[in-house]
């Protein structure tokens, strides 16, 4: 066994509950109304109570509780409801993993943001018009998005040992596949996060030092786990609200790679290349409402000052240019005309 695998095994052993005899034991797992004993797969719902702004809603989940002890890995999809490849991938994964052959457990959140998913809204919950991935850890007495975030925090994040938050280009975003790897300054936690990121198998990894450190103001789903001392990554696979098979397959392969890395299923992660690291990224936002015209696509290599796109008012007058802040790569660019003030036009990454 390699030194890396030995180190991983020691980390995982430290996470496991112990029986009276001092040996690890797998436990019964309950999330929402679903309870899975060791060796069982059970699906159910997390109930999100109604509020003054919205009716009650649900979060569908599947628990796959392994017959052998190991870590609890949470997988979330559709925190943004118009992002479909991760949703399709996790429904497939539900039927691919045999609990009898699993060490540890999976908590699969199939659709985190049901109001947005059903109404096909980009970024926002249609009841409170908040971005769910900006209100974590949420509040039990808050608006609809905040109540959903609170349920995800208390029912899913608080019960897992590690988390993968699955995203892709929303219905307006032309996006390359990449993932975010947070850097916290905690050497042990950062090593665990980096291990998950490198094992996933994506070529582009964005080093992110911008996430808040306060658990009470975590803002993002994956960061809520990280601020509670749990390794987590955010992946992006898909674009423009599409359901391309290759994007679905990337999520499945990457998830299984991380499960191998964590010792949950047999085998070594499938790495076909060394990752390319992005040391920082800049999101360029609109200064006014208008009509956006991209002039480059996802993955385009740009030089500092190069035009990425431009914004006009509703009479066709050009009012803002979107230019690269440095030499880098277009992680995503908005590829549909509508653009509201404050929303992204493009994200540019700087190579490390």
Describe the structure.
The chain is α+β, with helices and mostly antiparallel strands and 352 residues long. It has 2 domains: 24-261, 3-Layer(aba) Sandwich (Aminopeptidase), CATH 3.40.630; 283-351, OB fold (Dihydrolipoamide Acetyltransferase, E2P) (Beta Barrel). The chain has 7 helices and 19 strands. The protein has helices spanning 3-15, 85-96, 114-119, 144-156, 187-200, 221-226, 245-261, and strands at 29-31, 34-36, 40-48, 57-65, 68-76, 103-109, 162-167, 173-175, 178-182, 204-208, 232-236, 276-285, 290-294, 301-302, 307-312, 318-323, 328-334, 338-339, 344-351. The strands form 3 sheets. Strands 3, 4, 5, 6, 7, 8, 9, 10, 11, 12, 14, 17 and 19 form a 13-stranded mixed beta sheet that branches. A 4-stranded antiparallel beta sheet has the order 16-15-13-18, with no helix packed on it. A two-stranded antiparallel sheet has the order 1-2. Helix 5 (187-200) packs across helix 7. The protein is globular, with a radius of gyration of 20 Å.
Strand content: 25-35%
Total DSSP helices? 7
CATH class membership of the largest domain: Alpha Beta
The number of E-state strands comes to 19
pLDDT < 50 stretches: 1-7, 14-23
CATH-level-2 architecture of the largest domain: 3-Layer(aba) Sandwich
Cα-to-Cα separation, first versus last residue: 32 Å
CATH superfamily of the largest domain: Zn peptidases
The radius of gyration is 20 Å
Q: What is the residue-averaged pLDDT?
A: 93
Shape: globular
**CATH overall fold name of the largest domain:** Aminopeptidase
Broad structural category: alpha+beta
Whole-number count of domains: 2
Sheet bearing the most strands, described?
A: 13 strands, mixed
Helix coverage percent: 10-25%
Please write the string of helix (H) and strand (E) elements.
HEEEEEHEHHEEEHEHEHEEEEEEEE
């Amino acid at each position: 066994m390699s030194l890396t695998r030995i180190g991983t095994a020691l980390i995982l052993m430290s996470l496991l509950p112990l029986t009276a005899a001092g040996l690890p034991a797998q436990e019964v797992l309950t999330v929402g109304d679903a309870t899975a004993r060791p060796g069982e797969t059970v699906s159910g719902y997390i109930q999100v109570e109604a509020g003054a702004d919205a009716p009650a809603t649900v979060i569908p989940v599947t628990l796959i509780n392994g017959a052998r002890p190991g870590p609890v890995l949470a997988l979330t999809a559709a925190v943004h409801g118009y992002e479909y490849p991760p949703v399709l991938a996790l429904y497939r994964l539900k039927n691919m993993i045999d609990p009898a052959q699993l060490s540890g457990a999976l908590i699969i959140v199939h659709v985190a943001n049901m109001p947005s998913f059903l109404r096909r809204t980009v970024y926002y919950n249609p009841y409170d018009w908040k971005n769910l991935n900006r209100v974590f850890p949420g509040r039990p007495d808050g608006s609809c998005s905040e109540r959903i975030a609170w349920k995800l925090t208390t029912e899913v994040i608080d019960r897992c040992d590690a988390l993968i938050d699955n995203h892709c280009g929303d219905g307006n975003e032309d996006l390359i596949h990449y993932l975010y790897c947070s850097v916290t300054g905690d050497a042990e936690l950062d090593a665990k996060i980096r291990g998950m990121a490198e094992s996933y198998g994506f070529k582009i990894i964005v080093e992110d030092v911008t996430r808040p450190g306060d658990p009470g103001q975590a803002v993002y789903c994956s960061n809520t786990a990280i601020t509670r001392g749990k390794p987590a990554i955010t992946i992006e696979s898909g674009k423009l609200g599409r359901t391309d098979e290759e994007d679905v397959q990337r999520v499945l392969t990457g998830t299984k790679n991380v499960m191998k890395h964590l010792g949950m299923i047999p085998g070594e992660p499938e790495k076909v290349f060394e990752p390319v690291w992005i040391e920082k990224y800049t999101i360029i936002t609109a200064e006014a409402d208008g009509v956006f015209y991209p002039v480059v696509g996802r993955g385009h290599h740009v030089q500092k000052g190069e035009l990425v796109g431009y914004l006009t008012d509703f009479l066709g007058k050009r009012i803002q240019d979107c230019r690269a802040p440095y030499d880098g790569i277009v992680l995503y660019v908005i590829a549909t005309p509508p653009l509201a003030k404050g929303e992204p036009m493009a994200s540019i990454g700087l190579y490390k």
